[in-house]
Amino acid sequence: MNILLCPDSFKDALSAQAAAEAMARGVKRAVPDAHVQTCPLADGGEGSLDALIDATGAERRQLSVQDALGRPRQATWGWLSDQRTAFIELAEASGLQHLTAEERNALTTSTFGVGELLLAALDQGAEKALLLLGGSATNDGGAGMLQALGAQLLDQQGKSLPPGGAALSQLNRLELEGLDHRLASLTLEAAVDVDNPLLGKRGASAVFGPQKGASLQQVEQLDQALSNFADISAQTLGCDHRALPGAGAAGGMGFAAKAFLNATLKPGIEMIMQQAGMAERLVRADLVITGEGRLDGQSLAGKTPIGVSRAAQRANKPVIVLAGSLGDGWEACFDEGVTAAFALADGPMALKDALPRTAELLEARCESLLRLWATSQR
């Protein structure tokens, strides 16, 4: 019996790796002779870099970069030397998790550090880079990244813009001659876990700005600033990507990656499954178990359990999803290849009580499921 365990992280409770290990313990308690494959996954958000490094054996590297507020921090990136490929997670440089609630300011936070990571990859000789766009503290449309890479963003007086999305309202001219010439030969794929456009009611500012510290008034200010950035970008480049699904990812970083770096935007889970060799793993599996903190109707937009279930459906393999909670619309997941889904709680339980027990609950659910599955296979 071959069991494939490929969870995402359970937010605020377990990393994807720890979740997979907990699942494996439960499986082994039920069926000691089962062959267990663990393949921790992510969808482009938190934990994606670790998932890629674990799946590929890439070298883990460190670089001192600017965080979202311009302070120095040690950021991790991955280097897969045999493929000349760099793994870069935006959140390592410009992540929301590095700021306190009081420090979050979507008007001024910058993606400059992401550009510094890309430069390090180019210095290493990267021919390809996978850019993971989840978890940002920023709403600058990737402007900071572009400045780090050599572009100039100038106001009417010819002065460089200060950091942050609000400053883009003053943008008058883009000068791209200074962009690092090595970018022209870099193949860039950007992992997104949302399909939002850059602007409007579903745009970067309106949907994600509040969690980054923006008030309703500031959301409108940022949306207008990004609109000005999109206008001048279109005039400069001769093409307009503001309506592209995923352009609003990471405060507009999806827009900059596509418009200025010719990136291909891909669902993060598909990118990570490809690197992890998921198709080959599924061939060997009799049963697939995945999961994350919450399963609901929004999961269909590209979250890990749905990416896994769609791939498993193509391989005609059964999939069980274990989630911290099942939210509104979760039943739609049955149409995407999910065989069954279960919440972890074993009774009425407050979140603060459930989080410390996540590993224990995952073990128990997997043990019960495998006892039932083993009986059905006799």
From TrEMBL:
<keyword id="KW-0808">Transferase</keyword>
<dbReference type="InterPro" id="IPR004381">
    <property type="entry name" value="Glycerate_kinase"/>
</dbReference>
<dbReference type="GO" id="GO:0016301">
    <property type="term" value="F:kinase activity"/>
</dbReference>
<protein>
    <submittedName>
        <fullName>Glycerate kinase</fullName>
    </submittedName>
</protein>
<dbReference type="InterPro" id="IPR036129">
    <property type="entry name" value="Glycerate_kinase_sf"/>
</dbReference>
<keyword id="KW-0418">Kinase</keyword>
<dbReference type="InterPro" id="IPR018197">
    <property type="entry name" value="Glycerate_kinase_RE-like"/>
</dbReference>
<dbReference type="Pfam" id="PF02595">
    <property type="entry name" value="Gly_kinase"/>
</dbReference>
<dbReference type="InterPro" id="IPR018193">
    <property type="entry name" value="Glyc_kinase_flavodox-like_fold"/>
</dbReference>
<comment type="similarity">
    <text>Belongs to the glycerate kinase type-1 family.</text>
</comment>
